[in-house]
Amino acid sequence: MRGQRGFFLFFFLSILLSSHLFLRKYFASIDLSHRIALRMPKLKSHSGAKKRVRKTGSGKIAMKRNSRNHLLQQKSKRQKALSRTLLPSSSQEVKNLKLLLPYL
Known about the structure:
Layout: H1 2-18, H2 20-27, H3 33-38, H4 47-52, E1 53-55, E2 61-64, H5 77-84, E3 86-88, H6 91-100
Antiparallel strand pairs: 1-2, 2-3
């Protein structure tokens, strides 16, 4: 009988502690405003750079080549074929893009 009483007491306390009302009442007395002030703000990504750059499978940053929008009939097949490939970014461009796209 004594073991059962301990089990029921433990069961009742676990239900009480897990109840939403108890937790809400308990945590209402704790001031968490100082923790919110310490949180770092999120960084915004540059929306124009997001549309023009992507990360390759190996982790390099690549962008689309130019000369693919109009006046294509007067360009050679070789020029059009080369412009279909992705252009790897130079080291200086990568530094600038890291500032524009912090989560890339």
